[in-house]
Amino acid sequence: MDRSDCDVSIAPVSQATAARFTDLYFRRPFLIFIRSGSKVVTCPVRGEIEGREGDVMIFPPGVVLTMENRPLADRHYQAEGVNFSDDLIEEVFTQTPVLHRKAGIQILRAASHQPQAVLSLLKETLTTTNLPPEIRRHRLLEPLIWLKHQGVVLPLLGEDTPQARVRELIERDLSHDWRAPEVARDLGMSEATLRRWLAKSGHGFSGILLNTRLERGLGLLQTTGQPISEIALECGFKTPSHFSDAFKKRFGIPPKSIRMVEA
């Protein structure tokens, strides 16, 4: 069950079939607490890192990486993803030195750090409705303070890249029929300037739009029970078949394989 409010959200993540996802973009900071199976991440800063049951992996903002979720023989890959609001992260990590801004993926192991206990306390705070606001906020800050105490560095913002700015705009409404002229206008530039700007960063507008939609679709498949047809429309695809074809081309497996093992 998803637990969320304006400060913190926790979403269950489930995947039935092992798959390798390349060039995934994380615009905001993100924590993943692994419950079963394992996650292998290839990070430009730290190389390959494997997270196992009980571990927590910390993703900084603006990172692009390759990731593989590996289910067990008798159980799906399962985890819980946690997002904190910007103001909570800023309150704890506002003094992060510039030299640590590219910390890459970080991991705290189950045996030495017991991160699942911290997750349990966070869930308890979110489900307790009668806490005074000051106490509640302090309890929501405690997991971030704990992370910092363990040596984790978590900058609030990633680099202000062309891809980041375009994605942030598109993510406001993925079902919208986004066109380059409209995006350029919203970003305060001409379409020609936008295309040159994106080309210098190695990304085209249509590619960013498609990847943003598909990566959101992947997230919804992993964290919700929404029908694939609804996910397709919510992510801006005209038909479920268009979504399925594009998803398989991008990720190597059809959308339904995220939720069930093919016979």
General description of the model:
Helix 1 (86-93) packs across helix 4 (133-149) and helix 9 (228-234) packs across helix 10. This protein folds into 2 domains: 3-149, Jelly Rolls; 162-258, Arc Repressor Mutant, subunit A (Orthogonal Bundle), CATH 1.10.10. Strand 1 (3-4) and strand 2 (8-15) form a beta hairpin. The radius of gyration is 19 Å and the shape is globular. With 263 residues, the protein is an alpha+beta fold. The protein starts with a strand and ends in a 12-residue tail after the last helix. 40% of the residues lie in helices and 22% in strands. The chain is built from 10 helices and 10 strands. 28% of the residues are buried. The chain has helices spanning 86-93, 110-113, 115-127, 133-149, 162-170, 180-186, 191-200, 205-223, 228-234, 240-251; strands spanning 3-4, 8-15, 19-26, 30-36, 38-43, 47-51, 56-59, 63-70, 77-84, 106-108. The protein has a 6-stranded antiparallel β-sheet, with helices on both faces. Strands 3-8-5-6 form a 4-stranded antiparallel β-sheet.
